[in-house]
Amino acid sequence: MPRTTHPELHRTERIGWLRAAVLGANDGIVSTASLLVGVAAAGGGRGELMVAGVAGLVAGAMSMAAGEYVSVSSQADTERADLERERAELAAEPELEAQELTSIYVARGLSRELAAQVADQLMAHDALGAHARDELGISSTHAARPVQAALTSAATFAVGAALPLAAALVSPTAATAPIVAATSLLFLTGLGAVGAQTGGAPIGRAALRVAFWGALAMALTAGVGSLFGAVV
User: Which of 57, 115, 151, 192 is the S-S candidate for 105 at Cβ 3.0 to 4.6 Å?
Assistant: First the structure.
């Protein structure tokens, strides 16, 4: 029998968790590496480095989780409010809502007659779903998921932060700053490449972009540590 359907995997399905994962891992590496480099530049010993690094990992992971949850929850609240308003409009003025959906399809290239038929059939099947998708731009693929974003960001931040922390743990105290900086830049470059590969973006540009901002953050923090000459 001929195949009438075929499986397709689209990268847009990864947007929700991919954004949170890349953001969390990137922040974990950059913030923890910068913190360690700054403390090392200020003359901190291994004990101070470990305390600062672990504290930065825990605080950063919780901050990322809370920030992502609050931010994405706000998006989810807005989506729910828009859907409630659309549901009320569909109940009060279904004819006007059908005309609105028809105009959307006409603007996308359908004839008015065909657009009206499509709008009528979609509204008969799932009126709210049709308006949510085509009028409001809300779909299951891009819907806000606060818990998923929070957990993903916290976990990936912790993993990212553990990398420069491990480098600081095994490096000689006198060479901690350059070793942490160099290994963190490698981690960031790899993260940018993996994120680009997963999302289908150009790998080289993404890797360089992530590495540049990480290097800038570490350089500025090292400058602050050297300037004050004390553990912060």
Answer: 115
